[in-house]
Amino acid sequence: MAQQSINDLIELLDLEEIEKNHYRATSPNDGWQRVYGGQVIGQALVAASRTVPEDRHAHSLHGYFLRPGDTQFPILYTVDRIRDGRSFTTRRVVAIQHGKPIFNMSISFQVDETGFDHQLPMPEAPRPDTLQDERELRLEWAKKVPEEFAESFDRDRPIDIRPVEPLDIFQPEKRPPFQMCWMKSRERLPDDQRLHQCVLAYLSDWSLLDTAMLPHAVSFTQTKMQVASLDHAMWFHREFRADEWLLYVQDSPSAYGARGLNRGLIYTEAGVLVASATQEGLIRIHPDD
Hints:
This protein has 5 helices and 14 strands.
């Protein structure tokens, strides 16, 4: 397997400033035909964060995927400094390729404040050290991999994903629209909460859209299936480390009109709710010719 270290992920998120409010990023050569959505979310958050005072952290973001990203060309991120208030700072980021926007996102930052505190409890889940690493599962499924997915499938990524109930994406079976997985970076990250937020934004897109397909026994690997993220939102509730185990609890309350709605709650191993995510995605079946 091709090796990819956490330094590769940090470098991916470390944008080049080419002009004030303008940043350039590249994509890894990982075999995918289009840019992974979590990469664009994470890079857009980095771009916005570079324009905000260090005493403010992102508490929410809302983005729309407009066009597929091209892995062979750089992405330009432009930041609009919409508002700088006493407590909140708002930024809008547009990602551009080939002269056209491929993604836009609004991000709100806030100074640290005290206030009311409550959360939903974390559901019971097996400990991550009792579950198989996703790369071990990929080895088991290797013989089923179609040639078009072979290069991207045979890569050792810098993130550790451990599904609670693994789904065989090449032979999916019907199940309720609910899944959980543990996730973290494989290596230690610097002590920078902004970086941990950007890494979690990157991770949050990994399996969320799959949840809406579980009751229908379909997968993005199947012919005639068109699957793509349409939008993505996140809320950061409490501080966390993305290099320590996080439980991603996901469900899909509805699928209709070739779209599936998905929700996720992200907990630390100690049961602290640190972030929430929602995403609507396109899950379209093309008719027979």
